[in-house]
Amino acid sequence: MAYLSLKVLDRDGNTICVRNGEDFVDLVCTRTYEEGDRIVLETSEKNIHVNLQVDDALGSAFVYITDNVSYEIPFGEKRISYSPKVFAGARHYLYAETASKEEVSRYRNLALNPADQHREVPCYPHATANVETRGESVFAAKNAIDGVRANLSHGEWPYQSWGINRQADAAMKVDFGRKIRTGRVVLYTRADFPHDSWWTQVTLRFSDGSSQDFTLEKTNRAQTLTFPEREITWLELGNLIKADDPSPFPALSQIEVYGYVVL
């Protein structure tokens, strides 16, 4: 049993609202968020799976947390990679619930995390990259694991993506925070043609030291990469070979990693 505390704090650390519970806690916050506000999940147990909803318009995320989590509510430029409905208005519904054994053992997309943040946090899966176009939020690595597959344009939500700023050695890593077993990855490359280019080949590198190359096509549809199952804690997408095309802008809209948590 985990004791959970869910709260909203202002920029000075003052508590706006808070609720506590055993294995489940929900919170209704009747306030228009202000810059500097953050959501905090505290738990008596670490290294647990949790269903976490930081906003009702964002939806629930199945995550693995290794410590207390602080979620910074986005404002300004950081806001445009989210739906206009997210964190809007003066009434918000949040919850956290420890996941059941049946949920944890389920076959699922283990890369999905709409609550990922653009900073190091003890909450997984977590996406990072060695480059993001101009440092703009609409091209951050976390956009590629938020569950939004829209790929026929680029820029503001729902067309946020991971942009590589034309960097030849661009690579993106998805860290799962614990060991998983997978043999299938699905990619949605951005397909805003002719603005976009595409990759003809990519490499998946795995935490066990292995790697595998895959051929891609010019398409807006899902491209499935299958391989012998591996037990890993992270994978990296790299060695991105651009098509011989006038556009210098290949990008990734979504990566999905299907498998099981290793218990």
From TrEMBL:
Pfam families on file: DUF7402
InterPro entries the record matches: DUF7402, Galactose-bd-like_sf
Entries under SUPFAM superfamilies matching the protein: Galactose-binding domain-like (SSF49785)
Domain DUF7402: 127-237
Protein name: Carbohydrate-binding protein
Organism lineage: Bacteria, Bacillati, Bacillota, Clostridia, Lachnospirales
